[in-house]
Amino acid sequence: MEAQFYIQLSLKTTQGYGDYGQYFFENDREAAYSLFRQIEGDPAMIASCPLHIDLMETASGLPVKIKSICCTMEELGFNCKLIAKEIFRLKNLDEMS
């Protein structure tokens, strides 16, 4: 089974962090890592951080967190736009191939 990559969005709740969105890259490791390097935020994960963006890999059916970044609401807006734009570009390139 090939590794699958995705970016996961999480927010802090009273019960801990809850996931609320995912962007999938299928098995394109290079695209996932390249995009994650462009995401704005602070890689220092502090306890008061309300928003997380995580680079995830699914290996043998199990999710593994590769990297995390903490971001503000403004950074989240920029990041979601960036991610959606890149996913759109990648999906349309696949269809043209």
Shape: globular
Terminal Cα span: 24 Å
Q: Main beta sheet: strand number and arrangement?
A: 4 strands, antiparallel
Number of strands: 4
Total domains, how many? Answer: 1
What is the CA-based Rg, rounded?
A: 14 Å
Number of helices: 2
Q: Name the poorly predicted regions.
A: none
Q: Helices and strands in order, then pairings?
A:
Elements: E1 4-13, E2 16-26, H1 29-38, E3 51-59, E4 62-71, H2 73-96
Antiparallel strand pairs: 1-2, 1-3, 3-4
Can you tell me about this structure?
- With 97 residues, the protein is α+β, with helices and mostly antiparallel strands.
- The chain has one domain.
- It is 35% helix and 41% strand.
- It has 2 helices and 4 strands; from the N terminus they run ββαββα.
- Strands 2-1-3-4 form a 4-stranded antiparallel β-sheet, covered by helices on one side.
- Strand 3 (51-59) and strand 4 (62-71) form a beta hairpin.
- The longest helix is centred in the last third of the chain and has 24 residues, at 73-96.
- It is globular, with a radius of gyration of 14 Å.
- The mean pLDDT is 90.
Quick structural gist:
By secondary structure, the protein is α+β, with helices and mostly antiparallel strands. 35% of the residues lie in helices and 41% in strands. The chain has two helices and four strands; from the N terminus they run E-E-H-E-E-H.
